[in-house]
């Protein structure tokens, strides 16, 4: 277990004196740890490791030797000696089997060595030793179960991961991390109902554990989603205690004629839906008005053509993955960014705390996340007229600014030259093919039932889905059989590179959108390839996005107002394939003239929105996010969504909240705000004008 760069210390150095005391057993554990942590300089890690190694050699029978072994393992990890750290942690566990940090770290070290099976076995063994009910052991067991779930999910052992996470959720239902991943896993596997309450975890507790993006796929209740986003922000990001506030406060505003400095922050500036969407936008920025910075917080990429295009288009490229949240915020502030754009929201690899440090005077939510951030520091949200009509602004804490279509796309994306035949894609030649290429997490029980209603009424038709894991695919086929549809009519498209996936899309006849979380970039891809889309109009951002894309492509007639209309029209198209001809012809004829593909206009509109934000900031009119009553709206929404709200007309939906608020207000007065108290009749333009 000799660490790298092992050196004999100078006999007159402080380290030599400490090691001599260690050899003579004159250094107790407390002094050892304090002395090791005080070591400084470029060789501090090596010196620390040598001190622990020497102390252990001469004090192994000490009753607290396990603490020395544990700290020794930490020092070895710092030196990159993972094998030595594993030896030290195993020695620690032999002395003190119940010492929780060693049990957890040993599993982590095995995982980092690529031995995931050994890591899971280690954590499972350790979890059993934590079964006694004490606060410390419960905490250790919780962390261990979460680690098991995380690793098993990463290796696509979903059922085992789900079981570990459920145990963690029931152990501490007030700690939402495990519940967040558990619910997302069930959605990804199409396990219905998504939530399964028990005596240890209620339905409300499970709802409270869901991430905002999982909630968007669970129910179409935008007020509840806003309230959950606010609570999520408080628990996972919060308000940092310190940051570069002084630096920002001392900054002078830009004068007339100066370029706006726009900072785009994302983990997805690469081959990803966000990267595909923004490549051409970056290329079309007016360099005389905008100086664009890309702050990339993802893993380094090699040979990624999308990222290389963005690097070339942006004025500055800043990799920030290795920086802490505070360091990243300080870099953004040092670049004197005027407007910083959060392209992640609450999606995977988001680092929301960066924005909590307020690294720029204006913070914008756009493109990556379909909803309100519910945060105290996101000032604006960019959308379009369809996604957020004026009467729906009450569901967003940010001020809403609009561009022609909220879905940018890249008109230069490569498409495989050779288009496959239906036979090559595993599809029947003459059948009517309904398709849905959304992720499995968007397929709800109600959505799937509608699809089966459609298939039963269109003999010989098939449903072509983007494949999930094998068990999920089988589960959906069995669900089809239970609803009277033969399993072989549910087909799956395997993984394919993006150019080849685009090429095969047009093999389908009609794309069926999911609800309440509809297609986003998937919709733009389908329309690009000439495939019509049938979608449903909801209330929330995620449920209206596909309608926005379809409308921008000139096919607003394919937006359905009710589930019944959606099913009826899908059946009609399936029985009369020729009736889709006019829609395909229109896509082919007017594709390049549509709002959806006018990326120049979108970019100009985006720049105008940035100029408006800057102008409002210079006037001292930057909006303050409205977080009024959101804890109360969460309580009400959790009550309503014991069974998830899917479709409801606007007046009925608002009436639910107004009725409940009125009863609560009669008991204890509630601070009124600009949402449901004034929103009950906001659909009427005259009322809307008066309320404003």
Q: What is the strand and helix layout of this fold?
A:
Blueprint: H1 14-23, H2 29-38, H3 44-59, H4 65-78, H5 82-95, H6 100-112, H7 116-129, H8 135-154, H9 158-171, H10 176-188, H11 203-209, H12 212-216, H13 222-236, H14 245-249, E1 260-266, H15 273-284, E2 290-296, H16 305-313, E3 316-319, H17 325-334, E4 339-342, H18 353-356, E5 362-365, E6 380-383, E7 399-402, E8 433-436, H19 445-457, E9 462-466, H20 470-482, E10 490-493, H21 498-505, E11 510-512, H22 521-528, E12 533-536, H23 541-552, E13 559-560, H24 563-575, H25 581-590, H26 599-618, H27 630-640, H28 650-667, H29 676-679, H30 685-691
Parallel strand pairs: 1-2, 1-4, 2-3, 4-5, 5-6, 6-7, 8-9, 8-11, 9-10, 11-12, 12-13
